[in-house]
Automatic annotation (TrEMBL):
Protein's GO biological process: ATP synthesis coupled electron transport
Domain 4Fe-4S Mo/W bis-MGD-type, chain residue ranges per copy: 247-303
Organism taxonomic ancestry: Bacteria, Pseudomonadati, Verrucomicrobiota, Opitutia, Opitutales
Predominant location category: membrane
Coiled-coil stretches noted in the UniProt entry, renumbered to this chain: none
Name of the protein: (2Fe-2S)-binding protein
Cofactor(s) this protein cannot do without: [2Fe-2S] cluster; [4Fe-4S] cluster
Amino acid sequence: MIAPAQPDLVTVNIDGKEIAVPRGTNVIEAARLVAIDVPHYCYHPKLSVVGNCRMCLIEMGLPAVDPATKAPIMDPASGKQKINWMPRPQIGCATNVSPGLHVRTTTPQIKDCREGVMEFLLINHPLDCPICDQAGECKLQEQATQYGRGYSRFVEQKNVKPKRTPLGPRVMLDDERCILCSRCIRFCKEVAKDDVLGFIDRGSFSTLTCYPGKQLENNYSLNTVDICPVGALTSTDFRFKMRVWFLKQTNSIDTESSVGANTVVWSREGVIYRITPRRNDAVNDTWMADSGRLLYKQVAAPDRLSAITVQGAAGTLASAAAAASTLFQAGAVAVVGSGRSTVEEQFLTKQLAATLGARVSLVSRVGQGDKILISADRNPNLRGALVTGLIDTLPSAQLAALGAAIEAGQVKTVVAIGEDLAAAGLTAAQLAKVSIVYLGTHANATSVAAKIVVPTLTVFEKAGTFINQQFRIQKFARAVPGPAGASDDLAALSALIAAAGGAAIAADLPAIWAQLAAEVPALATMTYRNIPDTGLLLDGTPWSALPFVEGETLHYKPAAAPALATA
Ligand code: SF4
Ligand code: FES
């Protein structure tokens, strides 16, 4: 594990509480550290500061010093240094802490300011909270209740604006609800690097829109929905499907690439309704790609495998293991592991291969990186395969070697774990020459050709860990149960190990982590439970000479120029 660097601290006083905070922190964030809420709309910790909503007003003062001598001016009444309070309130989002800064957030003046700002924001805001998708997570609703006047003095007609303007294929705008905070505009420009949104018209007629001829269609467009503090932007996939307060939140990891963006899976009664990003400042800040949000659809995909089969007939895990045992006894077994498997599954895959004396191949999966949160390595856990010792080099062209071995008659049985061998480059003729034991979630050419098929679980239906491109081990939890007929991956692997003649292994995370900690040096002091929600950075130096394919992403810089993709 690698210890994080210590920040440079300054001491400030917020509502009478002294606190040391990192230099450069603004007042909103400093107050958050002492559990003081400074309400805000336009400020977002990962975007530039514009200061346009005025909701974050605070009173601020600095210790008084004699202008000539710079000596502190003391207050005889308190015996402490006098504080020079500014006559007018300041915005907390644009005020960075400085040594001795004093802040007041609860004075009558600040209460009056907040009520005034809320009143302006609500003048043209429609009264459609009961049918608004943002209900339950709406900052305007929450802060109107907490900081608003509690009644309206507005007797005029509200502006009427369009209620359903598609900004792109995945984002719908309700113009009336927009409070013109500009978060969505700044996100597109600063993070997605797609400067596609802007305001037109003036005053109460100001409206968010796309530039002429453009659409909000980049692969990060749904982050605008997440950061919109009101219900102006909604996801076309999620809107009107479910009230958020009914949904259970489960921490998960985006499996699209080796970035490992942290996510939350929102589900109810075994059904997933949406995936949103989870803040991890070391990995994905507060963002994720749109493509990763749709991965939950694989759970109920029509081609999902849900029944164990042995030679095409219905079976059980025990009968599948018995049939596999017969194949294993003939020898000449090869194992194809997966960079999509969890660390725990890769560890058991290694044990299976060792018990069988089998060669191990891993499927390389390389695409185009987008320099944000999709990396060139599309395996979420290639580093896991290295750390657990399943492989000791990058998986370039290894399936070609397996194909040649099959051609040469050196392999009789292939155990494919979560990988479609045909998609990975083996020909139909090669597949026809071997007996295949397939563990996987969806039907494909390999499951069709396999003698034994054991349906397993998607990432949403199990718990485990992945190691991302930074060598950060991150855990995820089970969000929903798997389909009836699917086996837990660890149970299926453990049954195969027993079928191969290996020692029985308890197929649960604590037991496997006890073994991992004992046998894998990089994980020596760890348990599944003590991995923090934001992950732990492992020492990746033993593998630093390997030519990983990733280029730069949001919080990752390759140590050296990446090698050319080889698969
Ligand atoms: S749509 Fe939402 S995020 Fe964009 S400016 Fe309006 S209120 Fe802000
Ligand atoms: S948060 Fe909008 S002005 Fe500070």
